[in-house]
Every structure is written in structure tokens, then in C-alpha cells.
Amino acid sequence: MESKIILPERDMPRQWYNALPDLPTPLAPPLEPGSGKPVTPDMLAPIFPQAVIEQEMSPEARIDIPEPVLDIYRLFRPTPLVRAHRLEKALGVKCKIFYKDESRSPAGSHKPNTAIPQAYYNAREGVKRLATETGAGQWGTALSFACKMFGLQCTVYMVKVSYNQKPYRRILINSYGAEVFPSPSDKTQTGRDILAKDPDCQGSLGLAISEAVEDAATHEDTKYALGSVLNHVVLHQTIVGLETEKQLAMAGEKPDFLVGCVGGGSNFGGLVLPFLPRKLSGEKIRFIAAEPKACPTLTRGQFRYDYGDVARLTPLLKMHTLGHAYMPAPIHAGGLRYHGDAPIVCNLAAEGIVEARSYFQNDCFEAARLFQATEGFLPAPETSHAIKAAIDVAREAEPGQNVVFLFSGHGLLDLASYDAYMQGNLVDFEHSQEDIDESLKACPTFD
Amino acid sequence: MESKIILPERDMPRQWYNALPDLPTPLAPPLEPGSGKPVTPDMLAPIFPQAVIEQEMSPEARIDIPEPVLDIYRLFRPTPLVRAHRLEKALGVKCKIFYKDESRSPAGSHKPNTAIPQAYYNAREGVKRLATETGAGQWGTALSFACKMFGLQCTVYMVKVSYNQKPYRRILINSYGAEVFPSPSDKTQTGRDILAKDPDCQGSLGLAISEAVEDAATHEDTKYALGSVLNHVVLHQTIVGLETEKQLAMAGEKPDFLVGCVGGGSNFGGLVLPFLPRKLSGEKIRFIAAEPKACPTLTRGQFRYDYGDVARLTPLLKMHTLGHAYMPAPIHAGGLRYHGDAPIVCNLAAEGIVEARSYFQNDCFEAARLFQATEGFLPAPETSHAIKAAIDVAREAEPGQNVVFLFSGHGLLDLASYDAYMQGNLVDFEHSQEDIDESLKACPTFD
């Protein structure tokens, strides 16, 4: 009874897949906040390197992965595709369940897939330091690791609630040589303004983004790196789906359901987008996105232009949003606490190509514990949403169908969350429609 | 530039290698503490299942791995053998460095290799609960995981200094359904006696063993499981070396140096023993054991009979020992804080077949950080000793030689140690000869 489908290193994909040219409805362009006009590449130059800006808008369906990036990928890639025999048995389902294990990277998640090329392109263009935000800490870990590999300095603004909940994450990021500040911090004007109004502010991903962007924009040798949402990030993550496609072919299987959790949408997009051409050409593959009920962007947000950050420093993106000032409840899946989602994923959700489901965190932890009790590994709280959705989908699936979900990260640095869950101390949050409507009022009207 | 040598799942070894019949000098038998006579199988029956007792004394060179054990092994095995290209380059060495990555298990270390069969054999023989000790927490995690897989209850006595240093370890063990007590505890007579004398006692592995053995011996439905030292434990760990041998053959390489850290000796024995027949038949392979200067069992201990635990409940084993009441300094590599070592490893060390080196913990953390900065992954403090030794050996090696070391576990639950190291707060310990001589006086005289 074989469990793991291992792609030989020599067969690791050497190109990423860019979904932009294949989208049935073209992606709405990012808009400049002041004028409402489409953003031009030169506007992004203060915060991103040239290669990344080109990728953000590229019309090419395949983009070469540079050799130095492949070298670092090879420290942990290709990652295994694993048949979850024991989970299937515990559920009593007749479908097959596979998980693509992205927890095997040094950072413990899929995030290095984009951190590595971003660090590489910046280093190649002479940048000395990268600034970024992090929610649960997965992205901060990934970027600090990638910066270490290419000799860059790294500054991480970490959402304060996670900074306090997860001291080990902070140490791990430090251990890769990065400096870490709780956000809101006194290091930026944005942070100082917020702290003046609310000294106890627990932060949000949108706010931390504002701080990191300001840091990059106000320092000559520094650029910004984002861990999700943008096209180039999703592009880099497609190595996950491209490997999965090859691995399923090796096993003589085809996917019926592809399942991932959605915070900003990059791990989900990375898994499903390489299968988009097949789906568009008629193959029956369902793309299932799982998100928290405490931050129900795809299931309850509006599809419209909004800012990516609280301070309105970023371009406007057309995406599902809960409003850029939305403060999600402090659930333990910190990486899913973002008001928006990747425009590419939202574009497909608006077309009905991506289906979204939302879950309470206690149900997700229960699913995570079942996974742990059967397959052995402890999932990250974010990943638990994908597991919950995969279990639901598996129960709905026909005998012989294949459910493939993305195991985006391990939970070894989220043990305080599990302790709280086991003690029965986790609260389930769901915002009222009034709250969400109120938050959406702050959105600009550029539609 | 390929990095990983992946053994296909179908080629995973289906037998363990038992070194007992191949030892140049037969192993001295374990002795019954009271009489000084060799231990008979029936004496071990109260604490071990029959299958384990048979393996402990088996004359067979190959022992079949049961199918249900293989099924659980397949959740994470075979593990990769990885070429450390970037570490080689940073060191400027001309030899090749490989590491066998046992951090990939659910428990994060090599320990499940024996936890799984031990849990299986106990469950098969109708045992309901296993009691054990744990130092740094790796073994407790592994046994609780294995018990979960086979439906057994699990009680873990965790050395108090580690219990307090590593709260996440305790939660992780709990998350696999086990109960965890800091040792010395008030759950056993041994623990209560110690606490009465020294309420602040920080514990030791030897003491925690006493508690777990007492628990098993005094409860009908409970048996004991040990994570290192004994022959059957080392036997189960030989899957590491057997896989490594196949992987090196796949790469067309042969090992010149095999390097591992030694706490009780099981990961080291598991790596090197399968190469013993080749070494004995004249092939030039050096077996290098790395241990802490704070607990220098092989480098400064005496090779003689001693108890395995503080309370003198265990049989006498002929091994290198610092004295069974030795209290090693509270270094962060908790898993290496044991006064003795596996008799098989000691037998070979006494013959000069195993060479031992000892290191200060700051030097080991420095080596670990170099590994992290080049290969990306954060090692456990125990593993850092193997890395330090491997680096030293690589610098001594001839061009073209191969250094293979065992990456026994990751450091993601040891981040407080790294924080202390980065802050410059780690102290290097070395006991005086007087201390060690004094400790050795307590050894029995059965030689």
C-alpha cells in the first residue's frame, strides 16, 4: 500500500504557470489610488524590483524559473503528494484523498515558493534589504529564510496579536537573521498614528502591510515583498499545482476536487491554477476554497475595487473584500485574517469557477486533530481549514473520485492554539451583516 | 545539481539488522541487580512484551518488520538522504557531505522508528497503556504518536528541566493523547522519595526512567517503553542505516565517515551498525560518535556494569557510564543528558570500532546556525552535535571522500535554546575529573 508519490528532482518544473492569459474574463487592472487610472510599471518601481513588476503583468503563460531559484527550491522540493489512506479509512469514504505536503520547507509552509524568487530578483537588482509584514508568522519565516539564502537583510512587521501568541515564530524569524517588530510599531508614521489613537491595537495584516510598504518607500536601499494576493506571488506558487499535476499523472490519477485554504489566496491559487486550462476545456475538476467564518472574504465580501492595506498606500485591486479597515476577530489562523483575496482567485470565484466555503475554527481544529490521529502530522491552524473542507468534500464525493488538498503548513509553532482548543477555550466568531456592511462603506467607488 | 537521494517506497527495507551476532566480542549479558546473575527473559516480562524481549536477545542477523509497522513507517519513510551542497561550499571542503534526514517524521526525529514497533508489539499482546520517560521531549512525542496509531494509552514522565524549558513539547505530546508529568513527580514512590529530599530537583533521564519503570511494574495493564540504549531499540533504528546504504548505492557512492550524536546511542547505532559487516570485512569506514562535554559518557566514562536508572530498578548493563546517579549539567541538548550508552555502541567503542568526540554546546549551536544558514533547516540541539562533528570531519577528510551524518531531529520546538544562544546566554559546562570519579564510586562491582 504505497503512500507517497515522489516526483524525481530532475522532473521538478522549470517554469511557473501564469494564469493571466487564460482567464475567461481578463483581470481588471490595478488602479492608482489618487487618480483611479491603471497603475503603470514605473509607479511600482519604488517598492518592487523590475523582474517582479514584469511578472505581475506578464502575458506569457509560462515563465522560466531562474537556476539560482531552482537551487534553493531543491533544498526541499519537489514535495511529496501523499495518499491519506488512514484518514480515508477513519472517514469510511470510498473516494481517494491525497494531500500535497508543503509543510516540508525550512519555513514549514508553502511560503518559500515565492519568498525565494522575490529575494533572488531583489538581490540581483542590487537591493540590500526587504521589508514585509507577517500574520501568523509563516511568511515572515519564509522571507527571512530566503533573504538569508541570497545575503539580503530583512525587516518583518508582525501583526501584534500573533507576535504575542507565537514567541517561537519571532525567534525562528530572528534565527534567519531578520529583525521583527510587532505591528503597529513606532518604526513608521502609519504605526505611530495608529498607536496614538489606540495604544492597545492588536494589529491586522492590512495594517502591517502599510508599515512595511512605508518602510520600503522611505528607504533607498529597501524594497517590499508581499507574501500573497498579487499575481507574481500566485505565479510563483504554481509550482505546487504543477508538481501535483505530474504526481497525479505518475499515479495514473486525475483530480476531481482540488481543495485549499484561502487567506490571501496564494497557496490555493498555486494549487488550482495549473489545472485551469483542463477545467476550461471541459474536464470536471472542482476548485474548493476554504476560509474562516471570522474573515469570510469570498463567501460574504463584495467583488469590487479596494485597497490592499489600512493606510491606503497600495494600488486598488478588484477583488472580494470585506473593506480594507475590516478587523477580523483574533482567530488562531492568523494567516487567514485578511480582508481581501488574490484578484486572480476572486476573478475565478466571480465566474463560479472557484467555489468557496467558510468554517468555524473549532470545527477546523477538530478536523486537524482527526488528521493528526490518522496521518500523524500536526497541521497549521490555516491548513486545518483545508482539511475540514477536504473531509466535507470527501464525504460528498462519489466512490473512486479523487480529493486533493493542499497541506500548506505544519502546526509545530501553533501549539498554544492546540492547547487552547484542547482546553475548550476557543471561541467561534461570525460577524454580523451590519458590521460587514459598515466596513464595506469605506471602499472606494471605482467600479 | 541534484540534492536529494530518494529511496522509492517499494524499496524500503522490510527487515531490521541485528548486530548482536556480528559483534567481534560478544555482548556482556545484562545482570540481575540483586544476584548479579544474567537476566532471563521471564525477569523482563513484567515490563516488556514478549516480542520485544525476544528481539533484545535474538541471535538472528535479520528480523522481519511487521506489516502494520511498515504501514505506519510509510507515513514518513523512506526519509531522504540529502547532499549538503551549500554547506560544503561554505566550508570550502572538497569532500561530499550528506545528511540522512530523520526530522521528517511526525514527531520530528528518528524516535518513531522504535516507538512504532514497540507500540505495535504491546498492542498485539493486549497491553492497554505504555509508560515512559522523556528528556528533551523527542521520545515522549514519538511514543505518544505511536500509541495513538495503535490505540494505546500513554503516560510520559518528562525530565523537569525540559518540561519547564519546552512547554510546546508538552502540548505536542498531549495532542497525541498522552498524559505528561514533570519528573520527579508525585505519581511514583521513586519520585516522592526524591522530592522529599530535594523539592527543587530538576530531574534526569535516569530518574525519569525509574518512575516509568515503577509505573509499569505496579500496574497490570501497563508496560514500559524505552527510547534508547537497549538492543531492541537500536535494532529498530537500523532502518536508518539500511536506507542510507541503499541510497548511497543509488548515488554510486560509498561512505568514508558516518557521524551521529550519542545520547543513549540509538540514532547513532541505527546509522552505523548496518555498515558494521562491511567495516569488519576491511572496508575503510569510520564511525564517529559526538557527545556533549557536559555528559561525556564515551570519552570520559568507564566501560563497566552499571544501572540504567537512578533508583537501581533496571538490570545492570555493561556500558560506558559516568555513574547512574550522575547529574549532567542542564545543557539544552536534553536528549544527550544520560549517564550511560547503548551496550552495543559501547562494546564497539571499547574495541576502537566506534570513535567518540565531545563538544561544548556553544560550538554545536554555532555549527547548527551554519547549517541553517546554508541548508535552510533548523536542527535540534542534540543534532547540532552531529553537525559539529561532521564539519570537523569534513575539514579533515580527503578530497572525494564522503561524510554522512544523521540529522536526527529539527529544532522547531527548541527555539528558546536558540534564543538563549543568540543572546549569548549559553554556558559551556565541563565536569571535573573529581566529580566524575566520585560519581563512578556508586557503580556496582560485577566486572
UniProtKB/TrEMBL annotation, chains A, B:
InterPro entries in the record: Trp_synth_b-like, Trp_synth_beta/beta-like, TrpB-like_PALP, TrpB-like_PALP_sf
Domain Tryptophan synthase beta chain-like PALP: 75-409
UniProt pathway: Amino-acid biosynthesis; L-tryptophan biosynthesis; L-tryptophan from chorismate: step 5/5
Reactions catalysed according to its record: (1S,2R)-1-C-(indol-3-yl)glycerol 3-phosphate + L-serine = D-glyceraldehyde 3-phosphate + L-tryptophan + H2O
Top EC class, one word: lyase
GO cellular component, one term: cytoplasm
GO molecular function terms attached to this record: L-serine hydro-lyase (adding indole, L-tryptophan-forming) activity; pyridoxal phosphate binding; tryptophan synthase activity
Alphabetical UniProt keywords: Amino-acid biosynthesis, Aromatic amino acid biosynthesis, Lyase, Pyridoxal phosphate, Tryptophan biosynthesis
Modification type N6-(pyridoxal phosphate)lysine: residues: K111
SUPFAM superfamilies per UniProt: Tryptophan synthase beta subunit-like PLP-dependent enzymes (SSF53686)
Known function: The beta subunit is responsible for the synthesis of L-tryptophan from indole and L-serine.
Family: Belongs to the TrpB family.
The protein's name in its UniProt record: Tryptophan synthase beta chain
Organism: Fundidesulfovibrio magnetotacticus
Taxonomic lineage: Bacteria, Pseudomonadati, Thermodesulfobacteriota, Desulfovibrionia, Desulfovibrionales
